[in-house]
Design brief:
This protein is mainly beta and 252 residues long. It has helices at 3-12, 39-42; strands at residues 23-24, 27-28, 51-59, 65-74, 82-95, 104-112, 119-122, 130-138, 146-153, 160-169, 186-188, 195-209, 215-228, 235-241, 245-251. It is globular and about 65 Å long.
Length: 252
């Protein structure tokens, strides 16, 4: 349903000929190979990664756009400083009378989140550090159940470092924690060095206390606010919103 962008991805991986095809850790599997052959995948079993991805996505209120926030966190030692990231929106099930006679199609590629092919990003430097990626693309109200997929890969080998897929919610989530548990709000990045963003729905009152309970900042905002942390002492701070939601943020 998106020939130009789909072709761009297949050309990036040098996939030519009939589909479907499989790519395992950047290597295109020959079309003559049965995909049920265990040896294709066994060499990658029990692999580890130094990076984690948490993603959330939602439709805007007028249903003409999809927004995605993805947090990439370094969780172990790695010499990599850059990588490639690719994001896409796919539709779970599409009813369409194709020329080959098929009526139902699954995981239909709809649109790339940014570039047609994976793009370069700078990875977090230290263990525990994270970066935040934000995307907003136009969508069609006729799209059914959709999901957002982010794939982080090695720029040199095209092998996958980490990936995450999340369902696109009907509206902005009322919150996402580090474990992607829906709560009342989103805040990022965490840890923070100079500033962080709090995002919520509508008018919100907030207060921030340091680890000994002293009030550092309070106020209100609508939808989103950026909090400057320059000059704050390093440590753990507690964010309170509307008196019911509390989360921890680390200032480095």
């Amino acid at each position: 349903m998106n020939t130009a962008q789909n072709d761009a991805v297949t050309n990036y991986y040098s996939i030519y000929g009939s589909t479907p095809r499989a790519v395992v850790q950047g290597t295109v599997i020959p079309s003559s190979t049965r995909l049920s052959t265990a040896s294709i995948f066994s060499s990658n079993n029990l692999g580890t990664t130094s990076f984690d991805i948490k993603t959330t996505s939602w439709r805007t209120q007028n249903n003409d756009s999809i927004e995605v926030i993805s947090i990439i966190k370094k969780v172990a030692v790695s010499s990599l400083t850059t990588a490639k990231i690719y994001g896409l929106i796919s539709e779970d099930t599409l009813r369409y009378a194709a020329q080959n006679g098929e009526q139902l199609h699954y995981n239909v590629f709809r649109k790339s989140l940014a570039s047609n092919i994976p793009t370069n990003i700078t990875l977090p430097t230290n263990e525990g550090d994270s970066i935040v990626l934000r995307y907003k693309i136009s969508s069609q109200p006729t799209w059914g159940n959709t999901s957002a997929t982010l794939i982080l890969s090695d720029a040199a080998t095209k092998s996958v470092l980490q990936a995450n897929r999340t369902r696109v919610l009907a509206s902005m989530p009322t919150s996402v924690s580090e474990k992607s548990t829906l709560k009342r709000f989103i805040f990022y990045p965490n840890p923070s060095t100079s500033e962080f963003t709090i995002q919520a729905i509508g008018f919100t009152e907030f207060s921030i206390n340091n680890s000994v309970g002293q009030l550092v900042l309070k106020g209100n905002f609508s939808d989103k606010i950026q909090v400057k942390t320059t000059g704050w002492a390093k440590g753990i701070y507690l964010i309170h919103l509307n008196g019911y939601a509390t989360e921890k943020i680390i200032v480095q």
